[in-house]
Write a structure and sequence with these properties.
Blueprint lengths: L1 H4 L21 E5 L2 E6 L10 H14 L7 E6 L10 H8 L4 H20 L4 E5 L2 E3 L1 H8 L2 E4 L4 E3 L14 H9 L1 H10 L2 E3 H7 L4 E2 L5 H13 L3 H13 L5 H16 L2 H11 L10
Helix pairs in contact: 2-4, 4-5, 6-7, 10-11
């Protein structure tokens, strides 16, 4: 089981471009700087398998070096986002693994979240229908979440006899919706409806189902047209400052912003302002 040992999968093509990458376990395309990743098993509500976990991990690691991708959208085919780990392809086999195999699996799934948080591009999740278990963690690990009123997000680990501390949920969810609300969801495993999810701050925006993906892609495109080097710095600092005190964070931001002030995009913005034009950012 190569996906459990941590042995990397070799992604085809140049490590600096992913436009020609042919995904094995989902759909993937790059258009004008925006990569759209679509979980594509709609008849079963887009569940994850051992192989799709492993490919997601390696793809997000490769995205850190992809010059042609400036923003990412992750979504699900059909009317659902992701129902979590496949009951037949994952849950059943897990009951037969020993502790070493189980730990290799849980570390691999956690590595997907680590790779999503570490890749420099903003990740926008477009969520319709079911968003459950590991699917809810893919949404949570994203930077921005667009949802629909009919969607249902559930961290349902407690409902199958597991702890809510899966793939970083106990670290990430309280930071998004607050400790008390996160505790309720992780203890009960109940579904969070779309309107409630927006009120709680889990969703940045609610969209009509028929425009959800286009809305998410349009937002991602706006980020891709912006100062992408600066965006990557913002994402890095949002991640790193979780473990900093205020004084340390202020100093880290001083250093980060000084680096951004050396960028060509910063100078482009100044000259555009002086000439009363809109800056055209190039990400350097």
């Amino acid at each position: 089981m190569r996906y459990l040992t941590g042995e990397p999968h070799q992604l085809p093509g140049s490590r600096n471009t992913l436009a020609d990458y042919q995904a094995r376990n989902f759909m993937f395309k790059v258009e004008q700087g925006v990569a759209t990743l679509t979980l594509n098993r709609p008849l079963r509500k887009n569940p994850l398998t051992f192989d799709s976990y492993a490919e997601l991990r390696e793809l997000f690691r490769a995205l850190a070096y992809a010059d042609d991708v400036k923003a990412i959208v992750i979504t699900g085919a059909g009317d659902n986002f992701c129902s979590g780990g496949d009951v037949h392809d994952i849950i059943g086999p897990l009951t037969k693994l020993d502790m070493s195999g189980l730990l290799a699996f849980t570390r691999m799934t956690g590595d997907v979240v680590k790779a999503m948080r570490a890749c420099p591009q903003p990740v926008v999740a477009a969520i319709d229908g079911i968003c459950a278990g590991a699917g809810a963690l893919l949404a949570l690990a994203s930077d921005i979440r667009y949802g629909t009123a009919r969607s249902k997000a559930a961290f349902l680990f407690a409902r199958v006899g597991l702890a809510g501390c899966d793939m970083g949920a106990c670290a990430l969810l309280p930071r998004v919706i607050g400790q008390g609300r996160a505790s309720e969801l992780l203890y009960t495993g109940r579904s969070l409806g779309g309107e409630e999810a927006e009120r709680w701050g889990f969703y940045n925006r609610l969209c009509a189902p028929e425009t959800l993906l286009a809305d998410a892609q349009a937002f991602a495109a706006s980020l891709a047209q912006g100062p992408t080097f600066a965006h990557s710095m913002t994402k890095r600092m949002l991640q790193q400052e979780w473990n900093m005190g205020v004084d340390e964070a202020v100093e880290a931001e001083a250093q980060a912003q000084a680096i951004c002030m050396m960028s060509n995009d910063f100078h482009r913005a100044y000259h555009a302002f002086v000439t009363k034009q809109k800056p055209v950012f190039e990400g350097d």
